Each structure stands twice: as C-alpha cells, then as structure tokens.
Amino acid sequence: MEKKLIFVDWHLFSRHKNAFLANLAVLNEISAEYDTLGLGKITPERTQEIISGNFRGIENDLSVAVEKEVKNQFTREFIETGVFAGFEIFKSKIEHLVSRFNRNQNGALGIISTPLEYFTIKKNRFEITNETWEQVKENCSNYIENEQELKIFEAIEKLAESANKVLDCVGENARLNFQTQEPANFIVQNDEGIYVPDVELNYKLLTK
Asked: Looking at residue 177, what DSSP letter applies?
C-alpha cells in the first residue's frame, strides 16, 4: 500500500525551523570569518572540521600558503608569527560561534538536530533549500506504511469513536471530570483476557 500521512507535528516543525534559521545565521558568520584567512571558499568538509573543533587542517593550509608566498626563511618565520597570532583571534571568534551553534540545538524542550548536510553552500554563503524544509517536515510527520499498521490505526479510530459516545452519554459533572476518568478506566480485562465493561463502576455518578 502507499503510505498514508496521518499527522504533521507543526509545533515540532516550528521549533526545528527556528533552530535551522538561527544556525544558518551562525554558519554564515563562520563563513565570513573564514574568508578573512584567504584560504579560498569554505567547503562542507572544512565546516565540519570547524564545528568539531578541529583546526589542524586550517593551520596546515596557512603554513603552506605562507611558505608558498615567502621564500626567505627569516621573513617567512616573521610573517608566520603575525599570521598565527591572527589565527588565534580567529579561533577564539569561531569557538564562540560554534558554542552558539550547539546552544541553538539545545532548547528547553529538548535537542533539535540541525545536521550540516541539510545546509547548502552557494556563492560562499550557506542557505536552506525548499528540499531541506520538505525533509524537516517529513521528519516531523507520522505515516501508516503497511496493512497491519492501517488495521491497528482503524481499530484505534473506532476506540476513539466509542470514547466520544461515552462522553456524549455521561452527565455534566462527569463530563467535566472526564479528563481524570480516562475511557480505559471504564473497561477491564476478564479472566480470558478480553476487554469488557467494568461492572463495578458507579453508573449513577456518571449520569450526574
């Protein structure tokens, strides 16, 4: 059977969307800082290194760049001193941004994952495509995917209909207290394991 969409948690989607937009801004700040190093365009691989706190690749690329441009060893060492002093400032800024990136994923209602592969890079800046938003929505959706799941879902639908019929029948006070009297409390299992009405209920109270 073709899978059947039964629910989209739009509240969860909204939380994901806010986290993605917040981290989109962070990633573009990281990209702007990376531009100052003169090492070319930022890549997904380099971004992953940065988010992971791994700066070895950047340090190596800076050393190679200085060595390539400056042949005199004394001059090269002098320039490297200045370059790596600037690099320490860069690292400090980046570590703060990475801290923000991680904090955006840890809201009061739990962790919201914003995987780097969900962001794309275009003209050296990060963006979120429509395909990504569709994937985020998909992650917040619930589906019935086979006949057995459908059978269970339809049976639960009938159970819900029965619970609503009980609600229609009970008295006003009982209806107000219905949230504390879950429908499951009105039925019990008999000796054969079959669910039957609870004959010990005070049905008079339910009419009040």
From this structure: T
